[in-house]
Design brief:
Layout (H helix, E strand, L loop, with lengths): L1 H15 L3 H14 L2 H14 L4 H4 L2 H5 L1
Helix pairs in contact: 1-2, 1-3
């Protein structure tokens, strides 16, 4: 079940990536609801997904906090 939640979160973030502000809000929501192992998976995805997208990397501060 948790893999489904992580996959849903990734899909939502991909859709929100056109709007950096929305992306950061969605990321903040995900951080609040995911457990540690899911956050690790999301962190790896985040690093790979935001490569070459500096407008989204600003959320890194929020993600790593």
């Amino acid at each position: 079940m948790s893999a489904t939640l992580v996959n849903y979160t990734k899909a939502a973030l991909e859709r929100a990536s056109k709007n950096p502000e929305l992306f950061c809000k969605e990321l903040a929501k995900a951080i609040k609801i995911l457990i540690a192992s899911e956050l690790e998976e999301l962190a790896i995805w985040f690093v790979n997904f935001t490569k070459g997208k500096p407008e989204l990397q600003n959320c890194k501060i929020e993600f790593m906090a």
